[in-house]
Amino acid sequence: MAEAIGEKALSNAKKMTIICTKGSLDWAYPPFILATTAAAMDVDVTMFFTFYGLQLLQKDLKLKVTPLGNPAMSMPMGGMHMSMPNMVGMIPGVTDMASVMMKNLIKKKGVASIEELREAATLSDVRMIGCQMTLDLFELDKKDMIDEIEIGGAATWMESALESDINLYM
Amino acid sequence: MADEVLDAKGLNCPLPILKAKKALNGLVDGKTLEVLSTDPGSVADFEAFCRATGNELVEHNNDGDIYRFLIKRVA
To answer: Which residue of A3, A90, A134, A147 is most buried, as measured by CB atoms within 10 A?
Structure first.
């Protein structure tokens, strides 16, 4: 009978989906932290990557963070906090500098890299769906993305969302 | 004495939980895992993790900046 019931019906696990729409270093964290933690707590997780979020599936990640338009960005430095005047973010090189500073801080504080979290997600069977429309729109190639993903659209996410207990948009 | 020890000192959220889950997967039911962490947030997180997954948090305490959790794998 088990075959007839099918795999889905046999699973009692709670389900969660996350729509990932942002591709910057800072915004890459919330979806991957929640996805990996949920998977560790026996939740079936589906992540749907669309628009800039699709960049998070590139084999070679070059994630950056910018202080431009982000008045809340304040970096600890020698016991103080440094925040940049917003306009400084416009100067060429500032985004790269801020990104290097953030990555150094992440390493120093024992925070996982996005590469590590993404690997943990694939190892714990988090389902990752890349958005077909975004691939077409930005002329991205699935060959440049990690192998563990599948490609789908809004209806693919919707099917998961309808049977999920938690649906998040980030 | 725990059956296995996981040193998660210096790691930040969510790594202690992810590594603990991986270590628990390698144990059979009834065996225990001791986790050492320096993340103050891991106290609330391991309590929640055990409540949600059904694994038993046998005891936890801290010695200075080091937090110690004893978790028994339950199904």
So the answer is: A134
